[in-house]
């Protein structure tokens, strides 16, 4: 993991990366004003390859699923590109050509050893404060998906449900439900 400080005078956290050539194969996000680059793990890749197409097929044009795409958040210190983000039907891009936090119906993050604290603490708090209705943490280390719902402005979610890999991951979106089969998710042997 590499970090670089971000100047607080930008309008979007992503503005600091305009014109910067970033190395291929790294995920780039901005947390607390620091640019963090981490390589994607094989487990992360496997989960995204399994879950993304299932979500896209069920959305059937009523919303959009994005993977590792920049989302503008309400602070120049935070720039996340969720592993998977479900964008609400009819959501529009801002003048930068990106979706904003309020366009998201759900975010799914796949935990890796290097991002564990960020996913379980910083993203959890930020997504709740931004009122993202559903935040799912997919953890190949313990073979579970934890669904957080009913966000509060205090930076937490009122409801939490954990399911084991192999069970269906049910995402109750506005006016519809997405069911993700998790039996193909990679399982930790430890």
Give an account of the 3D structure.
By secondary structure, the chain is of the alpha+beta class. The protein has helices at residues 42-59, 116-129, and strands at residues 2-5, 26-31, 34-39, 64-66, 71-72, 79-80, 84-87, 99-100, 104-110, 134-139, 144-151, 157-164, 168-173, 176-181. The strands form four sheets. It has a six-stranded mixed β-sheet, with helices on both faces. Strands 1-3-2 form a three-stranded antiparallel β-sheet, with no helix packed on it. β5 (71-72) and β6 form a beta hairpin.
Quick take:
The chain is of the alpha+beta class. It contains 2 helices and 14 strands, in the order βββαββββββαβββββ.
Strand content: 35-45%
What value does the average pLDDT take?
83
> What value does the Rg take, in angstroms?
16 Å
| Sheet with most strands | 6 strands, mixed
C-alpha end-to-end distance? 24 Å
The H/E string reads EEEHEEEEEEHEEEEE
Output the strand order for the largest sheet: 4-7-9-10-11-12
Tell me roughly what share of residues is in helical segments: 10-25%
* Bulk shape: globular
Overall number of strands: 14
């Amino acid at each position: 993991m590499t970090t670089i400080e971000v100047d607080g005078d930008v309008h979007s956290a992503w503005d600091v990366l305009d014109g910067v050539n970033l190395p291929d194969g790294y995920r780039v996000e901005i947390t607390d004003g620091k640019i963090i680059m981490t390589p994607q793990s094989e487990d992360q890749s496997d989960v995204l390859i399994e879950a993304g197409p299932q979500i896209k097929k069920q959305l059937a044009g009523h919303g959009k699923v994005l993977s590792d795409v920049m989302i503008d958040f309400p602070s120049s210190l935070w720039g996340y590109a969720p592993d998977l983000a479900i964008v609400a039907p009819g959501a529009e891009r801002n003048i930068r050509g990106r979706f904003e936090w309020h366009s998201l119906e759900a975010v799914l993050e796949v935990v890796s050893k290097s991002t564990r604290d960020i996913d379980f603490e910083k993203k959890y708090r930020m997504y709740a404060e931004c009122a993202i209705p559903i935040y799912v943490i997919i953890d190949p280390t313990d073979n579970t998906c934890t669904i957080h719902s009913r966000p509060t402005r205090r930076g937490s979610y009122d409801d939490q449900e954990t399911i084991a890999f192999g069970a269906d991951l049910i995402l109750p979106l506005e006016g519809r439900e997405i069911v993700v089969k998790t039996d193909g998710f990679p399982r930790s042997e430890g």
